[in-house]
Amino acid sequence: xxxxxxGGTAAVVLGxxxxxxxxxxxxxxADESAxxxxxxxxxxxxxxxxxxxxxxxxxxxxxxTSNASSLELLLRLGAxxxxxxxxxxxxxxxxxxxxxxxxxxxxxxxxxVIPKEKLLxxxxxxxxxxxxxxxxxGGMGDAPTEEEFKAAGIRHIYLKSTACAxxxxxxxxxxxxxxxxxxxxxxxxxxxxxxxxxxxxMKEKTDAVQQAVGGTAQSARPTYFFFDYDAGTKQPTVxxxxxxxxxxxxxxxxxxxxxxxxxxxxxxxxxxxIAKNPDWIQLGVRNRGSEAANDKAFDEAEKWLKSNAATKGxxxxxxxxxxxxxxxxxxxxxxxxxxxxxxIAKTLHPGKVG
Length: 354
Known about the structure:
CATH topology of the largest domain: Rossmann fold
CATH architecture of the largest domain: 3-Layer(aba) Sandwich
Strand content: 5-15%
Distance between the termini: 36 Å
Helix content: 25-40%
Radius of gyration: 20 Å
Number of strands: 13
Shape: globular
């Protein structure tokens, strides 16, 4: 599994929530539009999927992130100096230049899931989790219990937009959950002004796309297949309607061919993809750290589709309807989701999106 990405079987175990809590005099951390989350405005709360609340009376000073997605969000918010460690670290060159140098200075606690004892002994006062509790295997032991987190003095919160995707009760068709995550992280870390700026920038892009193509009838929307090349080609792993990629595709004026799948990810057979016969295929390769390496990976993914007996007859393959857009900015919650919406829309609806 490459850094910054959890895919395939790992994606199935996601399940948690970083969301706003309110009442009892605490601030509503997700109410960005009301402007209630002001830098340094405490107490604020975050609740998990079951409604359990974690309250902050001040900004955390020693943060550990489960992987590069939450690390990137903290760096964008300007809270990177408080991060003392991460799991699933970003590969060198996989983040924008202004963030890459900062990310490479963060201590790597594990190249994959952080072992239980190392996490509990890290000295963290906050752990931001993108994963559900799971048996970590490989001799690393089980994930810490909430009681163990408490005993170690570590508050434990989740990213809503990814961690609860599999158990969401309805399809994800917009980026409001991603925006709520950014807003909440801003409130928790005392960087709400920057969070508001990031969310506003995302909304500006997606609103412009919606104005141009949002009214397109379903029947007129091109069908779209996200080809997760790095998840394996023997049996494709597809994004379903609870995954953030479904929102990205929908906002861009397309139809996810596996939007009828309830959940975040699912393994299907190539016969299922053939039956969908998509109009467009995104070559979703993971960031290799350089433009040359990424181009090589895109070339490999395209060549595979063109040469494989099961896929070379697909409409999109025969017409060369490929989009070279990385996996992370499509399937992992972040600021780049909005840019991906814009990029897809410009390709699928030329002349409509500026």
